[in-house]
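Z., the sequence and structure:
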Amino acid sequence: MNTTTKFAGFALGLAAVFGIALGVGAAVGPEPSEPAAHDSHAAGSATAGGSATDPAGGLLATVAGYTLSLDNATTTAADAQLRFRILDADGAPVTRYVRSHDKDLHLIVVRRDMAAFQHVHPVLDETGTWRASLNLSRAGDYRVYADFTPEGGEALTLGADLRVAGQYDAQPLPASATTATVGEYTVTLDGRITPGQSSKITLSVSRSGRPVTDLQPYLGAYGHLVALRASDLAYLHVHPEGEPGDGVTPAGPGITFSVTAPTPGDYQLFLDFQHEGVVRTAEFTAQAVPGAAAPQSGHSGEQPGHGH
């Protein structure tokens, strides 16, 4: 999908009116099995499937005849490999996909309190089973999102629950703020969001007080944004305007996104960006309030238990 398409599963349009706030950030390294490159998925409108006609993705395990089936929906921290299949309407595993932004399938795994987030790219075997290595060291209930396009079908985002046994250290949603820190990096949000309207926000990256102007492509873009509605974990996959190498889009410090938030409420945003060969994730708590003024800068810090 190109950068002009809206979220891959939930049109998340950032309008000039929508109080967005940023929270905490965490530094993460690129996935060990793949070279650094950034994913630019497109998003749909606002329904449970996360397609161009169904924007609120990840709310259902079955959409348009396709089902996300986890081999084991209950596991422990010791078993860090997730195995799953995408089944068609006949119950057969799907083995052919349309590659989007360098990958056939993007897997997002987030704990339900938003305290642990991972974006990984699993490996598909000849039987149609996907395998992904995860960091499940923090016990709790997780939501698993599969973002993909089956051959001959439309883009979908399916969701299923994963329970990790152990002591659950539930965390409150971070307070909203306009900045997030990731180690020595600071990400600042410029823009407002108004529910039900499409608009733009810019996330600017600086390092030790200096603008970063040499961001590196990660899965085909300078930034990758995932948004989850706090009330029900509806999934919004947003992507930036422009693309690396188009002769127009600068490599930072600002990354501009077009988004559409369907309803008022709290959203958690996860921005992936790459610099000097390392993929980092900045986390923001965004508050969507009709006609709200832009929030004031607030405290932000690194948050453990978050990785790619």
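The radius of gyration is 18 Å. Residues 1-47, 293-308 have pLDDT under 50 and may be disordered.

Let me know what you think.
H.
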